[in-house]
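Usage

Read records sequentially. Each one opens with the input sequence:
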Amino acid sequence: MPKTTAKKQKSAKEKKLSYQSPKGMHDILPEDQPLWEKLRQTAKSTADFYNFSRIDTPIVEVAELFERSAGVSSDIVEKQMYFVKTKGGDRLVLRPEATAPVVRAYFEHGLSRMGQPVKLYYTGPIFRYEQPQSGRYRQHYQVGFEILGGENDPIYDAQAILAPYKFLEDVKIKNVMVHINSIGCPKCRPNYQKKLEAYYKKYQKKICKDCQRRLATNSMRLLDCKEEKCQPVKAEAPVILDYLCESCKNHFKRVLEFLDELKLPYMIDPYLVRGLDYYNRTVFEMFSEGFNFAIASGGRYDYLAEMLRLGRLSAVGGSLGLERIVEVLKESGKSAALQKYQPKIFFIHIGDEAKKRGLVMLEEFKKSGIKVSESFGKESLKSQLRLADKDKAQLALILGQKEVFEGSIIIRDMVNGAQETVPLEKVVEEVKRKLHS
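and closes with the structure output:
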């Protein structure tokens, strides 16, 4: 067989056997894990401070939960849900958002018996079949804060904004601006929708196909369109704030007063709406200076429980997109500052006896809370030193046959090359001293 033909067959075989993560999904590699762990820790510390208890809901839910809550004409239901086939014929989906599952859990487990409101937070993956875009994947991760039960007091709206804002502040994202609006209630919104529909009908041929469909099915979503050709039309559309009932006006005014008291920077965005049917009154998004995508969003959803036929429940919440936050941190050069520096120690063995003693020694370091890396699969001193250097170790602990026999170990400074020999039983103590000197 000619060599060129053999190479082609080998290349085709390699191509056939190569795998990549599915489109729009991504691996979080070890080098990025410290940053992601910091985000998870910040979510927990923020939740603890503001008295949010953790809840974890399944990543799979019945499809009807979202068809009722998000709205059958929403993009989520029409285009973005991942359906799961089951042997029993159940209509399940990978959760496209987390608020409806939290409300479902609230009623299913009788959380109304707890002191109200119930504050819950979550972190986990969300699945949406959409065109991948900046910081948004088909499987992406969110942190969410939900306040359920109690009255629809505007102070809870302010707290639902405060928790995500403080999260962003704690992960060192500066100059965050809160965009906020009120989309009214079932009492005042229909009148506004009539005005909005009448306005858009005049420009029906100038708007995108999705907006033409929205005009017939859910006119509020016209304001959520990001298509460039629709922006001039949206810019002149009627403003919902002019059509709010007195109750909604007073509610929005009180929310803004609380934000003023907290000194949170905000701007009223009269065309801000959310892409889900269950929102009412307060809606918000947060942006970092220099980036055109929202890194947090949320709002009030007093009618979600009724849409799910579960009962009545006043509620408000907000969530953060972790991939987008990671992108902001990396592009602004702040990701490294979040990763707590830990001096690295690398253990090097020479010979089988040193390997055995090393196993026991590493357990002593573990008890003292000091992490030590190693490569027991390597045998040569040169290859292990190369790995220690690659690992950017500050100190190397070298244990050879001579040191085992003498009960000693060499501590080598990987920065300046200086080294000293210390008794094996005192190595943990000596390493601690060097790390803190």
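Summary fields computed downstream for this record:
- Residues 189-243 form one domain.
- Residues 104 and 310 are 8 Å apart (CA to CA).
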